[in-house]
Design brief:
Layout: H1 5-11, H2 13-26, H3 33-68, H4 78-92
Helix pairs in contact: 2-3, 3-4
């Protein structure tokens, strides 16, 4: 998954942004199931195409990432990364995004209507414990609040 992460992020950028926008606006994952399915569908399509077109380079790069360091650092595998980059560009027309591409600010445009601002239910305050309420002694330490 990490070997194809940059390409996946580039190819499935729109469905991913739509899903993340839905998650942040709705605050209820059940309302974003359709958008989640679109991201999953896009990911499956992308990885099937990538494996079909560049399987050897993809597997070599993934193996290098897995075995070169415990953190799966990219800088140990630049040769296999270059081979995968050229294969993805030649056969699928997908260029690897530049460093910092995914951290650039973007304003997503969507066809989904904005959700209504929901107000939280007003819950009553928890009643205070009466002073004469029986309290069992603490087994360890104290129950007094240190100020």
């Amino acid at each position: 998954l990490r070997a194809g992460a940059y390409y996946f992020g580039k190819v499935c950028e729109e469905p991913s942004k739509e899903f993340m926008l839905c998650r942040s606006e709705e605050r209820d994952p059940r309302k974003c199931l359709a958008e989640g399915r679109e991201v999953t569908k896009c990911a499956l399509d992308f990885f099937r195409k990538a494996k079909k077109a560049c399987r050897k380079q993809f597997d070599e790069y993934a193996t290098c990432l897995e075995w070169s360091s415990s953190e799966m650092d990219y800088y140990h595998c630049r040769k296999t990364q270059a081979a995968l980059d050229s294969c993805m560009l030649d056969k699928l027309g997908i260029e690897r995004p530049h460093l910092g591409y995914f951290s650039m600010p973007r304003i997503p445009h969507t066809e989904r209507p904005r959700p209504e601002k929901g107000y939280r239910d007003d819950y009553p305050q928890t009643p205070k414990v009466e002073d004469d309420f029986p309290r069992t002694p603490a087994r360890v330490g104290t129950r007094s609040i240190i100020t």
